Amino acid sequence: MRFTTNELDTFSLFEDKVLVGTIHFSIDTVRNIHIIERVELNPDFQHQGFGTILMQTYLEQLHRKEVKVFPACPYAQNYLKKHPISFVDWSYSKK
Question: pTM, whole model, 2 decimals?
Answer without folding.
Answer: 0.90
